[in-house]
Known about the structure:
Helix content: 25-40%
CATH superfamily of the largest domain: Zn peptidases
Amino acid sequence: MSITESDNTPDLPEKVSRNLPAAAVILERCDKLASLSSMPDAICRTYLSREHGLANEMVSGWLTEAGMTASIDAAGNVFGRYAPAGQDTFLVLGSHLDTVPDAGRYDGILGVLSGIAVVDQLARSGTELPFGIEVVGFGEEEGVRFGTTLMCSRAFAGTWDSSWLALTDESGTTLESALETFGMDPQRVGEAARSPDQLEGYLELHIEQGPVLEAEDLPVGIVTGIAGAQRLLVTWTGTAAHAGTTPMDLRRDALAAAARGVEFVERTALALGIVATVGQLVAEPGGMNVVPGRVTMSLDVRSVDAELMEQGKQEILAGLSRIAADRGISMDVQPVHAADPVACAEHMRQAVASAINGLTAPVFELPSGAGHDAMAVATVCDVGMIFIRCAAGLSHNPGESVSHTDVAWGLAALHDTVLHLAENKARDSR
């Protein structure tokens, strides 16, 4: 079981201490789900795979044990419904069950299992709520198999794109065929969509995937919003030439130009207070004794401020164009992805703050630089997020780690946020 160093921290708040047994169960279940992998010595679970089906089956059992009615929707998402008083609107808790290749065991999964634990606690205590609760394990968030992220949460939000059915994975299998093999009807995926009048909101607990909470020495934080992203491919084209016979001042070296571009990206992002990343540089023809004639460079620009993100992208591209012109290099830009920033609803943030304050922890807010299912769900209802500290900020990495006590903190915060949302709704209904 993945329980780490600070698990015996003394003087925990009573509510957090009471959640330690449930947190241990969550960590054990994370380990069990980690065993459902297409890679023999690492974790990899992609959408509509055999492992996805097994994960849905395993989670369905836990949903049922917690007192919920389990089901699989038309997109392959697994749901548990808790509505003891026959409520017809639902607060949705959860996250995703798919992973990247060679993944950690908490990204997404921790949020699904914490949602189950909260419902289990509510059912055992007989707590009455003015709404029902659903726990969702979205089948796809990472976009690994078919190259498009958030497909399952977009199906939930009613923004599924039927053109995706023609997408293919590395083996040439279409999404349409994969759905059929999984037992789904590709023409009925739209039936997974929910209407706003069914939903009280969506609350997602997630590991931070960054180092901020650890630097602040805090177990949990409130997410203010999720950064938008602009992703582009920049192609620099010069002239491939002999490395020994072409004088330095007569070269049109595409990689040398791109290298200046990488430094400019970093400098501009720092100046504007955004994040911008060059994650890929592919030089051609790739010979040790050949001046690179062509370089393809990825560019990822993010911010929770849409205007600032656009300003950053435009300033970066203008600077790269100047570098190309100065060095006699041509440059082409191809957009490949765009997502607007999403703000977490103020009333959800306040409910999380009340919960954390009640646990006697400092109330700390931070944005999310990573994308989450909440981005897609925000088109159909209000969303909120709680972050849990993860060791060194590592994620999408087998070294991904959380402590037993931090999971108990997150679970207590999630549980009490649900209660605050319930109190607020009851008060507003009077």
